[in-house]
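Morning run. Coffee first, then this:
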Amino acid sequence: MVDDIRKWLEELGLDKYGDLFVENEIDLDAARHLEDGDLKELELPMGPRKKLVAAIADLLAQSQPTSDTPDAAPEPATGQQAERRQLTVMFCDLVGSTALSQQLDPEDLRDVMRSYQDVVAGAVTRFGGYVAKYLGDGVLIYFGWPRAYEDQAERAVRAGLDAILAVSSVEMAGVAALAARVGIATGQVVVGDLAGEAGAITGETPNLAARLQGIAKPGQVVISQDTKTLVSGFFELEDIGQHELKGFAHAVPAFRPLRESTGNSRFEATRDTTLSNIVGRESELGFLWDRWNLANAGKGQVLLLSGEAGLGKSRLVRALADGLAGKNHYRLRYQCAPHYANSALYPIIQRLEQAAGFSSNDSGDDKLDKLERLLAVAEDDAASSMPFIAALMSLHDEKRHGALDLEPQELRARIMTALVRQLQGLSRLRP
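And here it is:
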């Protein structure tokens, strides 16, 4: 495995980073899950990062699940029997590609299109999407084929938001900032072999996704009513009204996902707001309350609530949280998500972004200002933690607090120390 990662880096002309990857226990399999933020944390310069992001997208596109993998998806095959499925279809388009074709030499335009396609493919593949076809400056993606997911609509919206961000971060000499727009629709389709094309789909859904992409502004994702119904608990959505779309007899409602919802846990997001009463869990709930009272009296407690899926763990935690409503306390929720299984500190980054009130329209300085205000709540000397937590969140803080000239292991240790100081500082204010 060590030889594989070194050989791969050597083929990319980046063999001097071999020791760094080995030191951080990054083999070729782990490399498939690296994102630009991870490479920044390894302190790689801009040029090598961009090369690696493109190469990782190639790795993901080339990798196909094998039949001996327990949860492998079936290989798309020509001549397959047609089947009806519910799919979420995404259509991504590069804004201003015609103008680019007039401004650039064909070879330079090819490089721009390759970079655009690579970052889009990387974003959607991370969330289980299948790149069905490249259509010039457009990319057609399926969520739910060849492998079905119960949360495929949520995956599609996350992938769309990531793709928009990834395209805007592409930097190429002589080219202004790139922008993309995305349309997403969910519905019943028929998947099958059509004119020799495996995985071709028929139905209204792909046409709707393409039309919704057409009404999106640069840097926006627009979704259909059915997709909105499935993801409304996970994202803050803006109703952008009814739209007359070519080929559709009636006006079509459209929605724009703005950001991940800050109010709901995954348990709450997938359920109705009205919950049934807890039955038969009085002893467990009483145990939780006893431990809360001890913690409230200054005797810190840690509890692990474990059990098989469906036993009501999340419902029990919700009951405790409801009982604490109105009491003077801090509630810090760090929530894992299957889409970020390879980013160990994602739950912490997500909570900090939500608590600081980050917006998609914020500049880097705006985010740093908000983060400083958040950290100052727990620490009088927040400046001592700021550089390290800013580094965790991939924010450039060098102008304010200087560059961090630290080895990766030391940087990680300093980040963890800063996070613990924040937790301790909050606990001194409220339980």
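The beta strands are 83-94, 130-135, 138-143, 180-194, 197-202, 221-223, 235-243, 252-260. Good start to the day.
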